[in-house]
UniProtKB/TrEMBL annotation:
Name assigned to this protein: Uncharacterized protein
GO terms for MF: metallopeptidase activity
InterPro entries: MetalloPept_cat_dom_sf (IPR024079)
Length: 641
């Protein structure tokens, strides 16, 4: 067997060569990465892959040859590799490298795992503990072993345990806290590509998720992920099997693997597998969405491996497309063609994207998504928000270019969240801030934009909305210009996405919002700054220090009440905040009042919320849901007191 990683150097040029023509699940390819060596520094130079090489063996010698696809221009595109007994030569781009066998793994990655005190990191799962498909060999699979089977050597560093200081009763993590934790941990490393990824084992996420790869919003992405122990813990074989899949799945995103039903959004676009990708037997699919048969069908057929196409990416994807901290997640997928309606749609579902008539220059653009049924009642999943991977938003800018909205945080919603749409529950609504994401601000200039949505239903149907017109007004004076400047900074966009943060990495953004409130307190757009500051003050904030201790800043309910009350007053007078966001703000305001020890005022806030929506004349069914939310919130706040 000759497959594996070979290394060699020709003067100042170093080659890492991957030969993949025999052994376990060979993809029939040869690929490599080239680096320039100068003194004590090494710089990435380019990559290549030969997709269909010819392989000839004569005695102890193997000769592999084919035409390569390169990331750089070269007249010498033919690649020839000659191997004998673990060494040989490789002719690549006009250079001849002496090479020697280095590892049976095609790539080597360091995994650093930190766990918050009280959680237990996953160890391993015996695949024989539960029934497996015919031909699936029994073995003991750790996360490292699962990746080793894919040809990736995963070295797990000595795990660290993060003790908690002043944590109180709540160890639920939100996106802002995870973002801050990742920036603190990776401040120890060079801000550059490296075969290294960090995994945090935390208690739970405020959204109830099983796991998340949350590093999506800077020049060096895909370095941080998390799994949530409370959602996946357990000693039963079923629980251990699910933990293994969650760990491998989230780390798969760090290698730039998309979900099975999203591969058409990669660059270049990849063909979807059976049933629009839901039929993939892959770590990257969701078990409950597998077709046919859902979760039972998935586990009955899953051989605990990546698909062939995913193996090609892991083993032979160009260096910058795979290495952590290099190209962004789904590189190149930001610019797309506008979503087109299916030529035939028998789904019985309708998606609408709605927005208010006009937005001020610099105002956070929020759209409302509505999913309803047509004809007979329908059952689907409730993951309608675009940060959950089942809904995508396309934005056509005034100049005609269409980009894909890519949220700062993507949530792996690994549950069914089934909803039935019928006369008693005719529609599902979500509010989504789409003004800022991984590509920065999407509405940076005045003019007319077209926003389209695409929802991937539980059966794989792709429901496309009509375009929604979004108008961004031109600023009317000097104050409008200055306010827009304070709103459109990159850090401010992140704060709007995260609904506030204590992170020192976002200090300049917080200072800009403070200036907005102090100097332009009467400007209509200041309400958004008050909302972000109030929501962040009202909650506790967890921070992992450089010494790997978890410190929790307690809530500041007084500051939360001050800012959120101003938001509620502005909304009551017909302000800018949309109804769904206002609902959330008033429930958080009630929580802040309760934290100050005044349950009476908390109840009054919730009663005022119901009355406000009554005055707005919202749909009776929606109003009934708001009344239930108010009563449930009162009960929850009373139980906490």
């Amino acid at each position: 067997m000759i497959s594996g990683l070979y290394q060699g150097q020709d003067g100042g040029s170093r080659l890492e060569l991957r030969v993949d023509v025999d052994g376990a699940r060979p993809t029939g390819r040869v690929s490599g990465d080239l680096f320039s060596v100068a003194g004590s520094t090494t710089t990435y130079a380019g990559s290549f892959v030969v997709h269909s090489p010819t392989v000839r063996a004569e005695g102890d010698e193997a000769r592999i040859a084919g035409r390569g696809a390169f990331t750089f221009e070269t007249p010498a595109k033919d690649v020839t590799v000659t191997l004998t007994g673990g060494s040989g030569t490789a002719e690549v781009a006009g250079h001849v490298y002496p090479v020697a066998f280095a590892s049976p793994h095609f790539r080597q990655v360091l995994l650093e795992v930190d766990s918050v005190a009280g959680t237990v990191p996953f160890a391993s799962y015996a695949t024989s503990a539960l029934p497996t498909p015919a031909g699936c060999p029994p073995r003991e699979l750790s996360v490292a072993a699962a990746y080793a089977e894919a040809g990736i050597g995963l070295t797990v560093a000595e795990p660290g345990v993060i003790p908690a200081d002043g944590s109180g009763a709540d160890l639920a993590w939100d996106d802002a806290e995870l973002h801050h934790a990742m920036t603190q941990q990776f401040s120890l490393f060079a801000d550059a590509p490296a075969w290294r990824v960090w995994l945090l084992v935390a208690g739970r996420h405020v959204g109830g998720y099983r796991g998340i790869m949350f590093d999506y919003d800077d020049a060096h992405q895909r370095q941080g992920s998390a799994v949530f122990y409370d959602a996946i813990k357990g000693d039963t074989p079923q629980a251990q099997r699910a933990q293994l899949r969650t760990y491998v799945h989230e780390l798969g995103h760090a290698f730039n693997l998309l979900h099975s039903w999203q591969k058409n959004l990669a660059a270049p676009p990849q063909p979807l597998g059976p049933d629009g990708g839901f039929g993939d037997l892959s770590w990257m699919n969701y078990v409950q969405n597998y077709r046919p048969g859902g979760e039972p069908g998935y586990w009955a057929a899953f051989p605990f491996q990546f698909t062939d196409a995913e193996l090609v990416h892991l083993r032979h994807g160009f260096y910058r497309d795979v290495a952590m901290g290099a190209n962004a997640f789904g590189t190149g997928a930001a610019e797309i063609a506008p979503f087109e309606r299916p030529v035939e749609d028998l789904s019985g579902l309708r998606l609408e994207v709605r927005a208010k008539e006009r937005f001020g220059f610099g105002e956070p653009v929020v759209v409302e998504l509505k999913l309803s049924y047509t004809g007979e009642p329908r059952v689907t999943h409730g993951h309608l928000h675009p940060d959950t991977e089942f809904t995508q938003i396309a934005i056509t800018r005034p100049g005609g270019r269409t980009v894909l909205y890519r949220p700062m945080m993507r949530h792996c919603v690994d549950d069914s969240a089934e909803v039935r749409l019928d006369p008693g529950n005719p529609a599902l609504y979500r509010s989504a801030y789409v003004g800022h994401g991984r590509d920065g601000h999407y509405f940076q200039q005045p003019g007319e934009y077209l926003v389209r949505g695409q929802y991937i239903a539980a059966d794989g149907s792709r429901i496309v909305s009509d375009p929604c017109l979004v108008r961004v007004r031109y600023p009317a004076g000097a104050d409008d210009h200055r306010v827009a400047e304070l709103m459109l900074g990159e850090e401010q966009g992140k704060l709007f996405s995260l609904l506030g943060s204590d992170s020192p990495e976002l200090r300049a953004g917080n200072e800009a919002l403070d200036e907005l409130i102090d100097r332009y307190g009467g400007h209509p757009l200041t309400v958004y700054a008050r909302m972000v500051k109030g929501l962040n003050a009202e909650r506790e904030f967890k921070a992992i220090t450089a010494g790997k201790r978890l410190r929790v800043r307690p809530p500041d309910p007084k500051q939360g009440v001050e800012q959120l009350s101003a938001v509620a007053r502005e909304a009551a007078s017909g302000g800018l905040i949309d109804n769904i966001t206002l609902n959330m703000v008033m429930r958080r305001l009630a929580r802040a009042e309760a934290r100050q020890g005044d349950l009476g005022r908390a109840g009054a806030v919730l009663d005022r919320m119901v009355a406000l929506f009554e005055d707005k004349g919202v749909n009776p069914i929606v109003l009934g849901g708001i009344r239930r939310q108010a009563e449930e919130t009162k009960t929850a706040l009373g139980a906490r007191s």
